Amino acid sequence: MIITSKLAPLLPLSALALMTGAAFSVSAAGCPSSPTATCGLSPYNGQDLYFDRPSGSGFLNDPTSDATIYMDTRQQNDTQSLTVSGTNMTGKYIQASQNGTAAITLNQGASTDMIEGGNSGAETTISITLDNARLLGENDSVGYRSAVGDKAYMKGATVFIDQADRGAHSVSAVNGSQLHGTIITGGAGAQSVNLDGSTLDKGSIYALSKNANSTVTLTNARLDATQSPVAGAFDSYVSATGISLPVSPAALDAVALGLAGTQTNRLTLTNATVTGDAGLLNRTGANQVTMKNSTLNGDVVLAGAGSARIEAGSSLINGSIDASTNTGNTTIVISDGTTLTGNVITGSGNDSMAVIGGAEVKGSLDGGAGKNSLLLDGKSAIDGAILNISTVHATQDNTIVTPHIGSGTAYRLMNRSLLIGQTMSDARLTLSTDSMVIVTGAVTGVNSLIISEMGPQSQEGHFIVGSFNDLSRGTVNYQFANGQQQAAARSGAWNYDLLATTVPMNNATNGAEIVVVQRHSGLAHDVRGAIAGLDGAKQAGQSVSADLASRLDKLRSSFLLNGVSEGAHVWGDYLYQTGDFTDDADYHSNLQGAQIGVDWSHLLDNGDMLTGGFALAWVRNRVSDSDNQGNFNNAVYGDFYSLYGGWQQPLNDGGPSLFADGSVSAGEIRYSLRVHNLPTTTTGIKEALNGTYDGNMYDVEARTGFNVNAGAALIQPYVLLGWNEVNSDKFSSGRIDMAKNKTASWHTGGGVRVTGELEVNLAKIRVLPWLDARYVTEFNDNTSLTAADYAVTSGHNQKMGMFGAGANLAITRDLYFTSGIYTGTGDVDNSVSLQAGLSFDF
Which phi and psi angles does 814 have, rounded to 5°? Predict the structure, then answer.
């Protein structure tokens, strides 16, 4: 049983207070701003000091003092504050007394043995602040009131607050303070202890609240409970507080940090070092432990019926985590390189454990009763038995070494994770193709191995997913998630064909390895679709520039054959193209659009003609996989803005006349990607990336050549040079990322156009039939494509031959109908494009 504090008796003689008050007391307003010695305190027994009024402040600033300070009994609304500054009170203590509010500050190197306060049945609000101060601890060889050892019940404590008090209590040690003994604070109200930049040795910290929260915070602090007289008696102090707990764990035998209550117990360690156990006991409330960059040389013990949570990051726990008596749900997160040298055991709740961010547990994990799970990621590791855990999910580069792989746990190993067991029986395993299970001893029973999916950076080749040294007494039934031993799957940007087989091991115990052979079966369809979308946008831009060239051809042939029509002309064309194209991805194109423009022609004095104009176009190009299986189906929409113009010499008798023309276009592109990747009967990553995104296009093309009048025909040889760039914004899903891609290249070529002239006398319509043949090749293709793990930095430099025919009809003197049809060869199959429109001369 813990003996509570014994308060100094009240002074019976009020006369003494009246006589001495004149010398040592101050007004009720408190001490002066810079007292030099003693203020607000009166002598007692010729040696000790006490507060001579229920409210007020006291100040002690002497090099040494041989006085114990008593903060006298207060009423509930009274407040007494005491400051001891730069004073050595060795062999003495401070009695905070009971009821009301007591605020105590020690600073500037002040020291005393201990601080005591509170009382059974009282409601005392106590706050203690140590700022560069020292508490030496209760000394059994000192008689503090009447006889040697009269404070021995404090067991060397530096702060002792009666656990049966009903008030709220806080203790804070900062700025290099030193405590050489235990802090015990308890009662019905909230309890708080804070060590910041300070140390405590030869003792423990106990924060115990019957009806409120208990909080202990250590920051840049050190606590060593190796010589703590109370480290093995934590449960007795809890009982003295009146907290009724369902169980007192046997593991709490060397407690450095003890919190107990019925609301929330919160322990926070930041850049702290603690030697001894940390115990948090709670009947119905929550237990919370947070560690960061800290070391705990001891166990963490949690008990109670409420929830519990431990988060340890970048820390070292030289001990175990024991939540075996916690009946609520427990969450344990060991992260960021933390090492736990002992075991983890949880209680009867549905518990979750996570070992992540390169953390390591060197002991066993036991989930106890309930439905429990374990998560690993980021090169984390476990070296111990795994018991009573329903599921283990190792997500990335994890290593699990365990004595036995049994039927009670379902393992899921992904992304280069490794499971090593000495034995295995009736186990359930799910692995990615880049993960592996190794059993060094006997396999018994019927075991199941499901090859679920491929890692994000998988490659072609042979991969061992299982190695079993002795299958003489058991079997491993292996298959992909589709129930077969072969499947199609996706990894990153690629689709794969997979085949699982067994290979006998060269030993005498019937061992075998399970090997997965995986081969590329092509790019995933969303990657192909995104590439085709870029090429489809390029086709749209080139159809616009080709139509502008056709517009200038119409003007040129009409002017040369029928005379120049100066002034403005308004025109509009319908665009259509279909074909199968070969590039980074084969695709089928189906393009429709319209372009309208206005241009002006002017005849120079020397007979040369100049033409300039602008045009607006809208194009939609549907691009889909060329095998027509619906694997991808894109829509590319473009709004184009163009400037164009040309120069033409008049025809010379028997000689050529030169010409030059060109266009500049800019487009705003909108992409829509709709994809189906692998069939639902497959395994691994099936989903494809769908979405809408934007981009831009730029196109420049120039032509030059000459015209020859060959009697009934106008012959026009020409060469061309152009540049085109199309880009698309980046977009992504949970697994697949598309970069900001582009395709850009120069192209050059040459051709010849032949235009004739007919007149239909009855209708009085002039017909200008024409033929066009040209060859175009791309060069300097600096295409840049990145999708998941697929990247290219150059394109294929398409080569195409184009053949066209059409007719321009002069319906009236000013109204023309234009038409043409082209077909292509080379890197395009079944290509057909049409142009048809009207032109009106003002």
Answer: -115, -5
Burial of 521 (0-12, 13-18, 19+ CB in 10 A): middle
d(CA 237, CA 128) in angstroms, rounded, equals 20
Cβ-contact 94, 71 below 8 angstroms: yes
Contact residues for 401 (Cβ-Cβ < 8 A; gap 6+): 381, 382, 383, 384, 420, 421
HSE on the CB side for 521, CA within 13 Å?
Answer: 16
CA distances to 535, 565, 578, 588, 654 from 630, rounded to whole Å, are 18, 50, 17, 11, 57
Buried b (16+ CB within 10 A) or exposed e, 632-655: bbbbbbbebebebbbbbbebeeee
Q: Residue 417, SS3? A: coil
Amino acid identity, position 812: T
∠ CA 275-106-166, rounded to 5° = 75
Whole-angstrom distance, CA of residue 66 vs CA of residue 49 = 10
Q: How far apart are CA 655 and CA 46, in angstroms?
A: 134
- 155: its two tokens: 């067991």
Per-residue pLDDT reduced to its tens digit, 51-73: 878 888 989 998 898 899 999 87
**Buried b / exposed e along 259-296 (16+ C-beta atoms within 10 A):** bbbbbbbbbbbbbbbbbbbbbbbbbebbbbbbbbebbb
In degrees rounded to 5, what are phi and psi of residue 770? -145, 155
CB atoms within 10 A of CB 489: 28
Q: Taking residues 221-241, what's their average pLDDT?
A: 93
Q: What is the rounded distance in angstroms from the CA atom of residue 609 to the CA atom of residue 369? A: 94
- On whether the CB atoms of residues 367 and 343 are closer than 8 A, the answer is no
pTM over 0.70: yes
